[in-house]
Amino acid sequence: MSRGNRAAPPRDGRAAVVTGLGMTTALGGDAPSTWSALLDGACGVRSRDYGPPDGPPQVYLAAPAAVDPASGLSPVKAGHCDRSAQFALVAAREALRDAGLPDDRSLAGGASRVVVIVGAGLGGLLSILDQNRRLETGGPGRVSPRAVPVMLPNHAAAEVGLMVGATAGVHTPVSACASGAEAVAQALALIREDRADVVVAGGTEAGLHPLVFAGFARLRALSQRCGEPERASRPFDPGRDGFVMGEGAGMLVLESAGHAAARGARVHARLSGAGISNDSHHVAQPAPEGAGCAAAVTAALDDAGLLPEDVRHVNAHATSTPVGDLCEAQALRTAFGGALDDVAVSATKAAFGHTLGAAGAIEAVTTVLALRERTAPPTRSLDRVDPAIELNVVGRVPEPLPAGPLAAVSTSMGFGGHNVALAFTAAP
Amino acid sequence: MPTADDRELFDEVRELLAATVEDVSVEEVALDCDLKDDLGVDSLALLELVAAIEDRWQVQVPMDEAARLSTVREIVDHLSSVVPAPAGGAA
């Protein structure tokens, strides 16, 4: 991982490769169904009443998970977990199976050093609210003995860690909407530093609750198009008016190239570099012209040993807010210069919404799939590109990516000024 | 032999255990099961079970008493001594 300084190219055996993918989103309960629905132009955004059963309606736009994560777990395990941990467990299990690795404690039972890194945005917010409701309606005796562990931001990481016996370390980056991407960046560092052989890295989020909707609405960050959910999340379109909140999780299994080769693992792509920066500008607004985001992208390219012209695809953070999308477009221009004209930019939050702490990981999985399939996914709701935005945005139809050596970047930004860029290269 | 009321308590305790402890089914819970060794009830699961018992029967189980419960039979016996028998019951 680079924080702005040009890094020495990694030794090959300790380069990080992606061998497993998992995600659960508004488009599907796993990576293949999400990817397929994404290419088909499906939309996960719905307009729903999130108010309490006995209260006035509170209609918000959201991209709820296509598959209830509890349905993939035993009832007892599901009952012990916040919904965010349920998503993380389901996606981690998928990623491990995809990697051809055990999804239980036998994973760490061998000689491999296994680390779990699961980023969190809101953490166990739904559980906090539920336990607080029990406290207020029934007193302290109604609060669960499990209340504290499930409230903590590290709850999902701890559960995934327990699932695989990750004795080499369990970590939880908390950097708002960049958390999932920061988890992947941390995984790269651990593998390069020879502190892990296998890292299960990703992010998770379950925060579809009137409190969160109301908070974002008071910030005027949410789309107001409740009457047309299919046209609500419209990154880079001149008609964009805010984001739509989603939920879910994305997970990657990352291994040192040597570890993957030794077990004959299939490699989806290579995680070549990561860049992290902070705007240090404002708690909720991006720096002017996306300077921090540009720094992160430049750092990721340097870290990966890539030139701007090597990159032909960007999965943009692009939440569909008027200011955020514009700043990101400016940031990409700063980082890529003229090479940006040949970059196919996809904004996939148009389809599965903004999943906050999971977004960076879900979009990392999507970026890897784009490289593997050599297809830039569509920005399903795009009518036209805002004239102020100088990007080659992939519209409603997927665009083929070129044969030969190929690199792609995924960007993530979060409240608090966090910027993370991940650079992937296609498997040879 | 357990009384009919004890049998009802046992059945409810089995349900609570299966709903509280991972990988335990109702059928696996026998009266003589050791909570820790046979059913994998760890300290957190025991607290959760006690909370569920307090909820279900509206009784208080002090921690020192909870700590002494090591088998399913001891839970049933404890409940039998603190839970009022239903009106018209056999006990």
Automatic annotation (TrEMBL), chain A:
Family: Belongs to the thiolase-like superfamily. Beta-ketoacyl-ACP synthases family.
Lineage of origin: Bacteria, Bacillati, Actinomycetota, Actinomycetes, Kitasatosporales
UniProt-listed CDD domains: KAS_I_II (cd00834)
InterPro entries: Beta-ketoacyl_synthase, Ketoacyl_synth_C, Ketoacyl_synth_N, PKS_Beta-ketoAc_synthase_dom, Thiolase-like
Residue intervals of the Ketosynthase family 3 (KS3) domain: 13-426
Domain of life: Bacteria
SUPFAM superfamilies, sorted: Thiolase-like
Pfam families membership: ketoacyl-synt, Ketoacyl-synt_C
Keywords attached to this entry: Acyltransferase, Transferase
Gene3D superfamilies in UniProt: 3.40.47.10
Listed SMART domains: PKS_KS (SM00825)
Protein name: 3-oxoacyl-[acyl-carrier-protein] synthase II
Stored PANTHER family: 3-OXOACYL-[ACYL-CARRIER-PROTEIN] SYNTHASE, MITOCHONDRIAL (PTHR11712:SF336), POLYKETIDE SYNTHASE-RELATED (PTHR11712)
MF terms in GO: 3-oxoacyl-[acyl-carrier-protein] synthase activity
EC number: 2.3.1.179
UniProtKB/TrEMBL annotation, chain B:
This protein's pathway: Lipid metabolism; fatty acid biosynthesis
Function: Carrier of the growing fatty acid chain in fatty acid biosynthesis.
Gene Ontology BP term (one): lipid A biosynthetic process
Single annotated GO MF: acyl carrier activity
Species the sequence originates in: Streptomyces griseoviridis
InterPro entries on file: ACP (IPR003231), ACP-like_sf (IPR036736), PP-bd_ACP (IPR009081), Ppantetheine_attach_site (IPR006162)
Signal sequence, start to end: none
Matching PROSITE patterns: CARRIER, PHOSPHOPANTETHEINE
Gene (UniProt): acpP
Family as reported in the entry's similarity comment: Belongs to the acyl carrier protein (ACP) family.
PTMs per UniProt: 4'-phosphopantetheine is transferred from CoA to a specific serine of apo-ACP by AcpS. This modification is essential for activity because fatty acids are bound in thioester linkage to the sulfhydryl of the prosthetic group.
Protein name: Acyl carrier protein
Residues forming coiled coils: none
Occurrences of domain Carrier (ranges): 7-83
Keyword Phosphoprotein: yes
